[in-house]
Structures are given as structure tokens and as C-alpha cells.
Design brief:
- It comes from Marinobacter algicola DG893.
- It contains seven helices and eight strands, in the order E-E-H-H-E-E-E-E-H-H-H-H-E-E-H.
- It folds into two domains: 2-199, Transferase(Phosphotransferase), domain 1 (Orthogonal Bundle), CATH 1.10.510; 201-254, no CATH class.
- By secondary structure, it is of the alpha+beta class.
- A hairpin with a 5-residue loop joins strand 4 (94-97) and strand 5.
- The N and C termini lie far apart (46 Å).
């Protein structure tokens, strides 16, 4: 995608091939289908071949983490750094699924467009991603498998918070990142509703292990799947649920 090529170099080179155009003819699934009962059932059935587990909530949460990470990083980077909005709403996005059942790439109809004027708020700036993609998916997924919306929103917002910090460390000017910060630091949306991505992580001083620990506010419950331990930034690190395993990097320190 020529318009985005300058972004994805160095540490971000991995994301160069995540967003593709219609000339990529690999089989894909319309993103809108994932919010339906049949579409979600097929998705989990396919994912379960590589990640066993009977807990559909944990399976979906773990799958959504890859979905959010791979979509958030190139989309928001293009938005903040290039001032470019990409067509990633559910009605225009198609998902190329890998052999492991996880999102491999996203096909969009075109390279998007620069903002004609400065967005009035971060919620306007990221409206295509938040309102036309995340919101209907979170609602649909929560309804189908009874997974907490807070968990799903935290799965998404976790990557946004990380991305803004990573871009700052790479030298992106602070003014370009302001809307990214405001998105996760605003307790309420402009319409008065609570912002579900408000402060998705906190930094906790600890006496052992890494300190401060970058800790999510909501557990993604991936530990309920066979072979998976708590995340390194899990809120349950110091008091693991029964049967949960600590990640090796932290287990040696506690």
C-alpha cells in the first residue's frame, strides 16, 4: 500500500503487509459476518483447531487480541502520523484468516483519504475504527458468547495505549499523538456516555519483578485455555486465580 509504506520500517516493518488492497486475491471473510451468530460459530470452530479449549469466552477474547492488535497498529499509526483515515468499517473490511485461524491481513477497498479539516475530538478522528468496527463487534460478540464488553474494549484499548507510547519513543512529535492520548484519557465521550477505553492500563509499583508493572485493568481470561498462562500485564499477577499459571518471566521472581 504505497500511501502507508513510509510508516512501516524498522520495528514496524512487520505491519507493512497487514493492510492490503483489492488486488490481493486471497480468500477472505467479510468482517460484518463476525458479528453474527453463524459467523462467530464458524470463526471459533476454525480457531479451535489450533487453540484447543471449551471456553468460548476465552477463545474469543484471545482471538480478539490478535484482531485488535493487527488492526489498531497500522490504522491508528496512519491516522496520527499521516493524518489519513482508512476505510476499516465492518461493511468495507475483509479479513484474511491464516492457517492458525487468526487474522493474517485485512483487505480494504482503497488507501483512504487525508482529513479535510482537523477533527474536533479523538472520537471524531477515530470514528471509522471505533463506531463502525469496534462498537458493533463488541456488542455482537458480547451478545453471542456472554463475554464482558469491558474485557473486549480493554483488549483493544490496551494496544492503543501501548502504541501511543511506542510512537512517542520513536520520536513522533507530541502534538501528533495528542488525540491518541486523549482517546484513552477522556473519561467520557462528547455525548456524555462513559468512554469504554478510559485508562486501560495502570502502572503498579512492585517489590519483586518488573516495577512499575504495566498492568491491564481487565483480565483477558486467556488462562482458561489449555497451555496458556496469565499475560505478563495481567491484573491477577500477584493473586493468580485457581489453576492459573504465571508467565515464566515473572514466575522466577515471585
Amino acid at each position: 500500500m504505497p500511501a502507508l509504506a513510509p510508516l512501516f520500517v524498522g520495528d514496524f516493518e512487520y505491519y507493512r503487509s497487514i493492510l492490503v488492497l483489492p488486488d490481493d486475491t486471497r480468500p477472505a471473510t467479510p468482517a460484518r459476518d463476525l458479528a453474527t451468530e453463524d459467523g462467530l460459530s464458524l470463526l471459533l470452530e476454525r480457531y479451535r483447531r489450533s487453540q484447543p479449549g471449551d471456553d468460548d469466552r476465552a477463545l474469543l477474547s484471545q482471538w480478539s487480541r490478535t484482531y485488535f492488535a493487527k488492526l489498531v497498529i497500522p490504522t491508528i499509526t496512519a491516522n496520527l502520523v499521516l493524518g489519513r483515515e482508512l476505510p476499516v468499517g465492518l461493511d468495507t473490511l475483509e479479513i484474511i484468516i491464516g492457517c492458525d485461524g487468526l487474522p493474517e491481513a485485512f483487505r480494504i477497498p482503497d488507501e483512504g483519504r487525508p482529513f479535510e479539516q482537523v477533527p474536533a475530538s479523538p472520537f471524531e478522528r477515530f470514528g471509522e475504527l471505533l463506531e463502525s468496527n469496534f462498537e458493533p463487534l463488541v456488542v455482537g460478540w458480547s451478545r453471542q458468547v456472554k463475554l464482558s464488553r469491558k474485557v473486549l474494549w480493554n483488549n483493544a484499548a490496551n494496544y492503543i495505549e501501548w502504541l501511543v507510547g511506542a510512537l512517542a519513543q520513536m520520536g513522533v512529535p507530541s502534538n501528533r499523538l495528542e488525540d491518541g492520548r486523549r482517546l484513552i484519557e477522556s473519561e467520557y465521550r462528547p455525548d456524555g456516555q462513559r468512554n469504554p477505553m478510559y485508562r486501560p492500563v495502570r502502572y503498579i509499583p512492585r517489590n519483586v519483578g518488573p516495577s512499575p508493572l504495566r498492568q491491564r485493568r481487565q483480565c483477558c481470561i486467556r488462562y482458561r485455555l489449555p497451555g496458556l498462562e496469565l499475560c505478563e500485564n495481567c491484573p491477577h499477577i500477584d493473586r493468580p486465580p485457581k489453576g492459573a499459571k504465571l508467565p515464566e518471566s515473572l514466575a522466577v521472581n515471585v
